[in-house]
Amino acid sequence: MLHMHLQNLLIENFFIFSFLNREILPLPRGVLDMFKEDSVPEDEPSKHDGRVRTFSHFPGNWAMHVFIPFKASVHFESLVVSVVECLSVAISHEVHTIPCDELHMSVSRTVPIRHYWIDPIVQQLKNGFSTVHSFVSALQCPEVYTNDEETRSFVALKIMSEYKKFKDIVDVVDGIFQEFSLPTFYKNPSFHVSIAWCLGDICSENTDEIQTKLQDVFDAEVCEKEVARSLVLEVKEVHCKIGNKHFVFPLDAT
C-alpha cells in the first residue's frame, strides 16, 4: 500500500515537473497588444511645413470639423495666383497656396471627439441641416487672419452678404456641440475661404499696408466678368470630416 502511494506520488511529481519545464509557446502578437494603450504619435512639424497640432493627440479621440466646400474654377485659380504673389512680395515669410480641392468655409472649430460620439453627432447634424434652406453668396474682399495659437497666418476672401444665413448654419452646429461640451464657433465670426497660409503672425506686422496691396490686386482681377463670377458661393450642402470619415448633409432646396 505504501509502495503504491510512493509510486503514484513519483508519477504525479514527474508530470508536474514536466509541465513546469516544458517549452511554453509565445502568445500571438494580437493578444499581447489587446490591452496596450495606443501609442501617441509624435508631433513632427518638419513633416508638415512647420505646422503644429491645434490640440494634443489623445488615444481614442477623432478630429472633427464642419465646413462648407468651395468649388474653384480656372478663373478663381488665376485670382489666387495673383493674390499669393502679391503677399509673397509684401512679407518675409514663405507663403503656401491651399490646394483647390481643399478650399472651404469653416462653420465650426476643429475639435476632438470620442469615437462613440460619431453616430449621435452625425444624426443630429443631419436632422439640424434638413430644415436649413440652400442659398447663394459671394466672396468679396481679401482679409488676413491668424489662428488662435498665433502659429499660422492666412490670407482669405471673406463674404459680405447672407451673413445671417451662414450664422444659422453655425447655430445648428453650436447647439449640438454644446450638448457634448465641445468648443463652439467664434462669437462674431468672419466667414471666409482661406486661399493661402504662412507660418507666424503676420497680423502683428504692417497689416494696413499688406491689406491695401491685396485689395488693389483683387480689384484689378475682378474687373474681368469671369473672375467676378468665380467668386459665387453656392451653399447647397454642409460637409463634416471626422478622422478619415467624410459626411455630406444636403440643405433644403425648396
The total strand number stands at 10
Give the SSE string: HHEHEEEHEEHEHHEEE
Q: Please give the share of residues in helix.
A: 25-40%
Largest sheet properties? 5 strands, antiparallel
What separation lies between the terminal Cα atoms?
Answer: 98 Å
Structural class: alpha+beta
Q: In percent terms, what proportion of residues is strand?
A: 15-25%
Number of helices: 7
Principal-axis shape equals globular
Gyration radius, rounded: 29 Å
Low-pLDDT segments, ≥5 res: 30-41
The average pLDDT score comes to 85
Outline the secondary-structure elements:
Layout: H1 2-21, H2 29-32, E1 61-69, H3 74-90, E2 96-97, E3 104-106, E4 111-114, H4 118-129, E5 135-146, E6 152-159, H5 163-179, E7 192-199, H6 207-221, H7 225-229, E8 232-235, E9 237-242, E10 245-250
Helix pairs in contact: 3-6, 4-5
What does this structure look like?
- The chain has 254 residues and is α+β, with helices and mostly antiparallel strands.
- The chain has helices at residues 2-21, 29-32, 74-90, 118-129, 163-179, 207-221, 225-229, and strands spanning 61-69, 96-97, 104-106, 111-114, 135-146, 152-159, 192-199, 232-235, 237-242, 245-250.
- Strands 1, 3, 4, 9 and 10 form a 5-stranded antiparallel beta sheet that branches. Strands 2-7-6-5-8 form a 5-stranded antiparallel beta sheet.
- α3 (74-90) runs antiparallel to α6 (207-221).
- Residues 30-41 have low confidence and may be disordered.
